[in-house]
Amino acid sequence: MSLTGIGIEAINVFCGLAQLPVPALFDGRGLDRQRLDHLMMESRSIALPCEDPVTNAVNAALPIVRGLGDAERDSIEILITSSESGVDYSKSISSYVHDLLGLSRHCRVFEAKQACYAATAAVQLAAAYVSSGVSPGARALVIATDVAMVDARAGYAEPATGHGAAAMLISDQPRVMAFDLGAFGTYSYETLDSARPGPDFDIADVDASLFAYLDCLSQTFADYRTKVDDVDFATTFDYLALHTPFAGLVKAGHRKLMREQARASVEEVDADFAARVMPSLRYPSLVGNLCSGAVYLALCSLIDNAPYTDGARVGMFSYGSGCASEFFSGLIDQGSRDELARMRIAEHLAARLPLTFAEYAEMLEENKQCLVPVPDREVEIARYKRFFEASAERGPLLALRGVEAFHRKYEWV
After folding, report:
1. Helical H segments across 352-403, by residue range
2. How much is the pLDDT for 1?
3. What are the structural domains, with CATH classification, of the chain?
4. What letters, b where the CB count within 10 A reaches 16 and e where it falls short, cover 379-413?
5. From residue 37, how far is each of 12, 24, 78, 350, 410 by CA, in Å?
């Protein structure tokens, strides 16, 4: 089988250079260890002070861009970053990313924001542009990138919050996933289930967010069914990749739809979850919530870990607080696995150095200033040399070295 149509030509995730074991975070904060099983997390990615949304985005996209020839690179006509971690109230993160990746100056550059849904909105816009045919052979690069602004005030959300970026090249050569064009369901309404009212902290109504997620999952799938004939939640999709703030919520969402749509028993729900969903949760269990990149981290996990041997249809759900959501689908095959294997995601996650809780706590206050606008700032990259050395086989990575007259400055390490 060879994928055709419009979709993801290449995908990669970058999840930082450091990680903190989640049990250590639970113990450091005095949280109830009995709730570890509900999170289903082993570790979470932690930002270093020399990492920010720009470095995450560039480091995620760099292997994709490096794999293109000159003409292919110049065919990237749209660059969209999605983020709730903007570094400027006017200028987009894309402006920095465009320059640092060396993309053509004949490229649309902008940023999208709608909490954890924005990357999917950007992907759909990019797919529509490519499929329109107005610019034959055009590609679009979509990068979801965020940093965490949580501390002890976040309670049990702190262990679940990740750090990093997911980059996707959208084209008419869908080597990783071919989208089912026209097969989608959407659902949106205004609510304040979580927000980032300032550049150094998040707020959340956890219960409201969980219920909104579950409601939107049901409503988007119902809307999907109005556009696609003969859809059965239990049988149409070989696998599922859902927005993953933490695996326990994904499990609750899957159980809800299996009961609503398939009238499944407890045993049938558990077996289906293990077969169709668990492969998508391996990487999220090591990283945490990547915000708008979370569903694409789950997709990468699925492609790398699911036991498919031929073509498989994947049902995907994207949710963003505020709120906006979408259920959509696409096809993967053995070529998808081969293409993604070049990114060596599992190896790179394993190469992250562990932090102690004390090291994490010491770093936290500086990290929380990452997005606060200041005229001048210096970052001592040399303090984090051991983290870059542990990932040296990747080649040079981008790091933040400081701010001069409000202009962020970067260097390759």
Report:
1. 357-367, 385-390
2. 60
3. 7-412 (3.40.47.10)
4. bebeebeebbeebeebeebbbbbbbeeeebebeeb
5. 28, 14, 41, 22, 40
Count of Cβ atoms closer than 10 Å to residue 195 Cβ: 15
The predicted-structure confidence for 118-177, as pLDDT tens digits, reads as follows 999 999 999 999 999 999 999 999 999 999 999 999 899 999 999 999 999 999 999 999
Res 328: pLDDT: 98
Q: Are strands 164-171 and 18-21 parallel, antiparallel or unpaired?
A: unpaired
* pLDDT tens track for 190-216: 999 998 999 998 888 888 999 999 999
Surface-to-core class of residue 161, CB atoms within 10 Å of its CB (0-12 exposed, 13-18 middle, 19+ buried): buried
Beta strands in 7-149 (DSSP E): 7-14, 18-21, 43-46, 76-82, 108-112, 139-146
Is 320 in contact with 115 (CB distance < 8 Å)?
A: yes
pLDDT tens digits, residue range 217-229? Answer: 999 999 999 999 9
Rg, Å, the chain Cα set: 20
Q: Give the distance from CA 68 to its chain's centroid.
A: 22
For the sheet containing 407-412, what is the strand order?
A: 376-378, 398-404, 407-412
Tokens 């990547």, residue? 290
Question: Considering the entire predicted model, what is its pTM?
Answer: 0.97
| Average pLDDT over all residues of the chain | 96
The answer to whether the peptide bond before residue 323 is cis (omega within 30 degrees of 0) is: yes
d(C-alpha 104, C-alpha 317), whole Å: 32
- 3-class DSSP assignment, residue 191: coil
Rounded CA gap, 74 and 55, in Å?
22
- The H or E element spanning position 177 is strand 177-188
H helices present in 30-105, as ranges: 36-39, 53-66, 70-74, 93-100
Backbone angles phi, psi at 189, to 5 degrees: -165, 165
Residue 151, amino acid: D
For the annotated catalytic residues, the residue numbers are: 84, 116, 243
Helix (H, G, I), strand (E, B), or coil: what is residue 355?
coil
Q: Per this entry, what is the length of the chain?
A: 413
Token duo for residue 236: 């149409």
